[in-house]
């Protein structure tokens, strides 16, 4: 008797934020498809992704192949991360302007998702963002609950752009009446949010839920115990490393919570750790990230096969 089938297991796929490091989950998912023969849209009943992760899960929900998603990360990094034009010196500019112009990111998302609306997608899809105008969370959701009305006319590309609008990297995004920023500010790992939503909106028993959670790398950050040094964003905290540190802490805490409340064999986290800082916006790092992703998939292949029952 297949007890897993009897329990009607509900599989959820979640992808962390992490900028250009989205190449890691993109490659892992493409390997699951091409090397293990898994149909991701058939295997997973619900999807959630934050920031760069939203690009990937939205792509799956819109039936874009994992091969094309990988190509997106490989070829368009330099196009997306285009410095905002200003006359400020490099180290001063972030204090007054976002580091990058979002125009090319907008165009890329338009080319990728066209005019597909969230209301056109019936597979449960969650895309976290942050409502900076009202000081709250904002979660875009597809058309899987009759009570949802707010997001049905929202373009997928606009929801993804909002989730990717990381403070200091890109300006906030206006969607309807909302001023929105990166969902990574509160849900860089969206697993807990989607775990709760599956129970509340779809009435899935907690013990029936399985989550494959794919990260974008965790860099060890050590600031030491010398509190006499200067702690500005340009020296002690180191702006980009500090932002990456905050995102990583959020992802770790979510993973820790889920480990406490979910069955041990119902949660699989795929991620890697680095002794060196991991870039959020350096397109030149894609080859190294691709190699790390391939190594992670190779190391975790048997665990993935067992988890997905393939």
> Mean pLDDT, as a whole number?
88
Shape: globular
Radius of gyration: 19 Å
Q: In percent, how much strand structure appears in the residues?
A: 5-15%
Note the main sheet: 8 strands, mixed
Number of H/I helices: 11
| N-to-C series of helices and strands | HEHHEHHHEEHEEHHEEHEEH
Helicity level: 40-55%
- As residue ranges, the low-confidence spans are 1-6
Which oligomeric state applies? single chain
What distance lies between the first and last C-alpha atoms, to the nearest angstrom? 17 Å
State the secondary-structure class. Answer: alpha/beta
Number of strands: 10
Describe it.
This protein is α/β, with parallel strands linked by helices and 310 residues long. Helix content is 42%, strand content 15%. The protein contains eleven helices and ten strands. The protein has helices at 3-6, 23-36, 40-43, 52-61, 66-80, 103-113, 156-164, 184-187, 191-202, 239-261, 286-308, and strands at 10-15, 46-49, 125-131, 136-141, 173-175, 178-182, 209-214, 218-219, 267-270, 273-274. Strands 1, 2, 3, 4, 5, 6, 7 and 9 form an eight-stranded mixed sheet that branches. Strand 3 (125-131) and strand 4 (136-141) form a beta hairpin. Helix 2 packs antiparallel against helix 5 and helix 6 packs antiparallel against helix 7. It is globular.
Could you write a compact summary of the structure shown?
The protein has helices spanning 3-6, 23-36, 40-43, 52-61, 66-80, 103-113, 156-164, 184-187, 191-202, 239-261, 286-308, and strands spanning 10-15, 46-49, 125-131, 136-141, 173-175, 178-182, 209-214, 218-219, 267-270, 273-274. Strand 3 and strand 4 (136-141) form a beta hairpin.
């Amino acid at each position: 008797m297949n007890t897993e089938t009897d329990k009607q297991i509900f599989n959820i796929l979640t992808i962390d934020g992490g900028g250009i490091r989205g190449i890691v989950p993109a490659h892992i998912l493409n390997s699951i498809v091409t090397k293990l023969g898994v149909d991701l849209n058939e295997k997973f009943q619900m999807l959630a992704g934050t920031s760069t992760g939203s690009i990937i899960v939205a792509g799956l929900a819109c039936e874009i192949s994992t091969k094309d998603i990988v190509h997106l990360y490989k070829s368009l990094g330099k196009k997306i991360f285009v410095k905002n034009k200003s006359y400020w010196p490099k180290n001063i500019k972030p204090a007054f302007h976002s580091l990058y112009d979002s125009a090319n990111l907008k165009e890329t998302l338009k080319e990728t998702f066209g005019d597909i609306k969230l209301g056109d997608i019936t597979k449960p899809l969650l895309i976290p963002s942050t409502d900076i105008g009202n000081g709250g969370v904002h979660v875009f959701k597809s058309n899987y609950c009759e009570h949802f009305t707010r997001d049905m006319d929202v373009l997928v590309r606009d929801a993804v752009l909002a989730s990717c609008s990381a403070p200091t990297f890109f300006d906030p995004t206006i969607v309807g009446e909302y001023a929105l920023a990166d969902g990574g500010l509160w849900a860089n790992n969206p697993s807990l949010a989607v775990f709760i939503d599956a129970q509340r909106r779809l009435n899935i028993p907690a013990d029936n839920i399985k989550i494959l959670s794919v990260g974008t790398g965790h860099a060890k950050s050590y600031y030491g115990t010398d509190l006499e040094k200067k702690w500005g964003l340009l020296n002690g905290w180191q702006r980009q490393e500090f932002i990456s540190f905050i995102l990583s802490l959020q992802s770790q805490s979510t993973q820790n919570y889920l480990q406490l409340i979910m069955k041990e064999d119902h949660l699989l986290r795929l991620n890697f750790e680095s002794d060196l800082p991991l870039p959020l916006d350096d397109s030149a790092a894609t080859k190294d990230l691709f190699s790390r992703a391939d190594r992670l998939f190779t190391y975790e292949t048997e665990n993935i096969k067992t988890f997905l029952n393939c």
